[in-house]
Design a protein that fits this description.
Layout (H helix, E strand, L loop, with lengths): L16 H17 L4 H8 L3 H8 L7 H11 L12
Length: 86
């Protein structure tokens, strides 16, 4: 498209509040069930304690890579985090 302005679509950031809140509750439940404090999980996973706290309070939408890293650190299957209904 030489000489013509290209129309760009504005990307919409997706944040499913209900889903993120339910994930946060499930995440916290699993962390406690597995016997980790936020500090211990941060150390084991290499994810900051602040990041873990933000996940647990549904302030952020964690990436799938973050979820994989935390699951590996706790030695659990990733599907454990998603055992809830929307």
């Amino acid at each position: 498209m030489v000489g013509k302005a290209r129309k760009t679509k504005k990307r919409k950031l997706v944040f499913d509040k209900e889903g993120v809140e339910k994930f946060a509750l499930r995440f916290t439940e699993i962390r406690k069930r597995e016997g980790y404090t936020q500090e211990q999980l941060a150390f084991e996973s290499g994810i900051s304690r602040i990041q873990i706290a933000r996940i647990e309070t549904a302030r952020i939408n964690p990436t799938i890579s973050t979820i994989f890293t935390i699951a590996r650190a706790m030695g659990i299957d990733t599907d454990e985090f998603f055992k809830f209904r929307l």
